[in-house]
């Protein structure tokens, strides 16, 4: 099966497994795991923050970040289709008493004015106060879209003036960095808390990291333990993270080219399906409103041909390229997919 459901489906390579085998470990709840400690230092350095904390999942890293910024009964604002709002099962409300309000953006792309239009900092005793703004880069359900740096900077400036914090859901910040050449630090310096995933395009089996100030990391360490996320000899996973940064970060550019090929093959059937120029990174989302079949039906046809994508809405099909997808796999996809699309295209 050519599995394009997500970049989370990668399996650790032989080299990564060797790194895991050779990892020096200790009890990380005691702060004794040298491989975790060095990975946290490395990622803090990359993002330009004082400190960082290894977490089992991106959701936990996000949730730790926002709970440090927003008090119970205050609000976080985010884009309508952001992962924090749609895909973390209400964790901000359940664990932290945080309410959310959303602005809508085409392909999830940030315009500072959209966020600022709904922000209500210091709302007094009757209305909920906005304490933090979350930005997702790249934007998953937006089709891997990259956030414009000038809009991030503008939002940072305006939000800082009214005392609002900014959280970066950077699960795929690596992809944005590789695609634009903008340094991780340049992105990172605009945020108070940052989460990054090692288990997406970088190909580690498990692991995310929260990066922020030393003081917040000390608090995050307590909350991580409280959430049941204090892990012991977890250097075996951190070693995979180091390996991923050493070997796999630079390979993301291939994922981006492969995603572009999928988009171009679809656009050749109908430009209404996808505009290849909007495919910034490793995600292609098809708008199937011009098709007589649903995303689930098209996906079923694809599966019969040995290709699997993710039907994330009735007419919304997502393809994600990743480390375990080869150029030959893409040859196969572009040989099969246009024919299936053509068959169900509504004139
Ligand atoms: C995958 C992802 C996360 C974290 O997901 P986990 O499955 O909890 O690791 C967070 N944000 C975005 C945008 C993601 O795509």
TrEMBL record:
Keywords: Lyase, Pyridoxal phosphate. Residues 3-287 form the Aromatic amino acid beta-eliminating lyase/threonine aldolase domain. This is Unannotated protein. Its cofactor is pyridoxal 5'-phosphate. The lineage of its organism: unclassified sequences, metagenomes, ecological metagenomes. The keyword Transport does not apply. It comes from freshwater metagenome. GO terms for molecular function: L-allo-threonine aldolase activity. GO terms for cellular component: cytosol. GO terms for biological process: glycine biosynthetic process; L-threonine catabolic process. Belongs to the threonine aldolase family. InterPro entries: ArAA_b-elim_lyase/Thr_aldolase, Low_specificity_L-TA-like, PyrdxlP-dep_Trfase, PyrdxlP-dep_Trfase_major, PyrdxlP-dep_Trfase_small. It holds the Pfam family Beta_elim_lyase.
């Amino acid at each position: 099966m050519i599995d394009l459901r997500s970049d989370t489906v990668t399996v650790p390579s032989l080299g990564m497994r060797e790194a895991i085998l050779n990892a020096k470990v200790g009890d990380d709840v005691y702060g004794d795991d040298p491989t975790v400690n060095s990975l946290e230092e490395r990622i803090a350095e990359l993002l330009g923050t004082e400190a960082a904390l290894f977490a089992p999942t991106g959701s936990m890293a996000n949730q730790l970040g926002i709970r440090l910024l927003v008090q119970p009964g205050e609000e976080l604002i985010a884009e309508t289709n952001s992962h924090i709002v749609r895909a973390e099962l209400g964790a901000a409300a359940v664990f932290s008493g945080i309410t959310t309000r959303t602005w809508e953006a085409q392909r999830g792309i940030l315009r500072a004015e959209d966020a600022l239009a709904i922000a209500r900092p210091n709302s007094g005793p009757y209305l909920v106060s906005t304490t933090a703004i979350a930005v997702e880069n790249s934007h998953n359900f937006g089709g891997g879209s990259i956030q414009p740096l000038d809009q991030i900077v503008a939002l940072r400036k305006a939000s800082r003036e009214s005392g609002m914090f900014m959280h970066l859901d950077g699960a795929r910040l690596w992809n944005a960095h590789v695609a634009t050449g903008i340094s991780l630090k340049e992105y990172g310096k605009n945020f108070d808390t940052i989460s990054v995933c090692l288990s997406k395009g970088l190909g580690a089996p498990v692991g995310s990291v929260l990066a922020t100030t030393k003081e917040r990391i000390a608090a995050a360490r307590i909350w991580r333990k409280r959430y049941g996320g204090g892990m012991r000899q977890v250097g075996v996973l951190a070693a995979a993270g180091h390996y991923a940064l050493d070997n796999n970060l630079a390979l993301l550019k291939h994922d981006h080219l492969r995603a572009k090929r999928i988009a171009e093959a679809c656009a050749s059937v109908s430009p209404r399906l996808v505009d290849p120029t909007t495919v910034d990174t490793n995600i292609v989302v098809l708008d199937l409103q011009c098709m007589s079949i649903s995303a689930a039906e098209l996906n079923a046809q694809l599966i019969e041909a040995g290709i699997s994508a993710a039907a994330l809405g009735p007419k919304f099909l997502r393809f994600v390229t990743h480390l375990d997808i080869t150029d030959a796999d893409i040859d196969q996809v572009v040989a099969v997919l246009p024919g299936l699309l053509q068959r169900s295209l509504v004139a």
